[in-house]
Amino acid sequence: MRRMLRLALALGLVVFGAAGSARALEYLETFEPDGDPAAMMAGTLLIGSDGAWSGALADGAYRLSNAGKKGGIKYFHLGRPDQGAGAETLTVSVDITARFDGKAAGAGLVYLVDPRTKTYYAFMVAEGGSYTVLRRGTQGFKRVASGTNDAIKSDGVNRLSVRLARDKARLFVNEAQVIGHSVERTAEGNAGIIAVDLGDYRFDNFQFATE
Questions:
Q1: What structural domains and CATH numbers belong to the chain?
Q2: What does the longest C-alpha to C-alpha distance in the chain come to?
Q3: Which of 119, 101, 97 is CA-nearest to residue 110?
């Protein structure tokens, strides 16, 4: 099935949203265990160890662990600030399974990533059905929103999605909208995955689509 999805992507897969609008799947990463990490997420994935962090392809997913650095942050993105340029709507999604060990632990998506300034937004789920939205600007981090939502599973897989249209972002977990917020479009649709603080995080089925 995973190889069929990759073939469809190579052929220029077009899917349709609930309202019947055409959605072009620009990027799909299923983290195949026999895949080439250098070809995944623009070659930014950590494979091996980097201090307290370790990363590997395992059981058809990307596993990222932090065993000792409190407050540590790791994120990986597609590497193109113009990703999805000109599209009316951008949607990025990923499946996450996690064990949160630190007080600030969370995992999710980064979006509107500008690799030149290292600024981005982050939408993460955490322990107890909670979520956090952060903005990393040139002066540091700012909390955009946080809370809890019944759509977030305490155990098992949570699918996170961010849907961007002009200066607005709508954030979903398991297809239920959790929150919406305004954005500063200093970059286009460049997006990726993120993990924060102590824990064990698994990412799968990362996709980037435009309309």
A1: 2-210 (2.60.120.560)
A2: 47
A3: 119
Question: What does the block give as tokens for 45?
Answer: 């994935």
Whether 121 contacts 144, CB under 8 Å: yes
Instruction: Give the chain's residues under pLDDT 50.
Output: 1-20
SS3 state at 153: coil
Residue 137 has phi, psi (to 5 degrees) of: -105, -170
List, for residues 37-46, the tens digit of each pLDDT value: 999 998 999 9
CB count in 10 Å sphere of residue 180: 12
pTM for the whole structure? 0.88
Considering only CA atoms, which of 118, 54, 77 is closest in space to residue 206? 77
- Phi, psi angle pair for 172, to nearest 5°: -125, 150
- Which residue is associated with the tokens 């007080």? 103
